Amino acid sequence: MDELRFEALEEKMAYLELTNAQLEDEIFRQQQEIDALTKAHRNMVQLIETLQDSASEQNLIGASGNTNTEKPPHY
């Protein structure tokens, strides 16, 4: 009887160890994905800031009398 209980406990322990290893692998995978998404987010923020700066510069050029950005008279 004790031997059966011991075997049942060993099986449960083996199952728990396997589940724990799978969870560790999943957490590692998720952390890699979070890192990649964080890097992509930083790049997008940088790109948006660059585009905003470029748009601001173009607005300043247009406001200073440069007619290259104005619509032709037929519009």
Structure description:
By secondary structure, this protein is mainly α. It contains one helix and no strands. The longest helix has 62 residues. The radius of gyration is 31 Å and the shape is rod-shaped. The N and C termini lie far apart (94 Å).
In short:
The protein is mostly helical and 75 residues long. It has 1 helix and no strands. Helices cover 83% and strands 0% of the residues.
List the helices and strands and how they pair.
Blueprint lengths: L1 H62 L12
Helical content, roughly? over 70%
Largest sheet: none
Which structural class is indicated by helix and strand composition?
mainly alpha
Low-confidence stretches: none
Q: What share of residues are in beta strands?
A: under 5%
Please tag this protein with its features.
mainly alpha, 83% helix
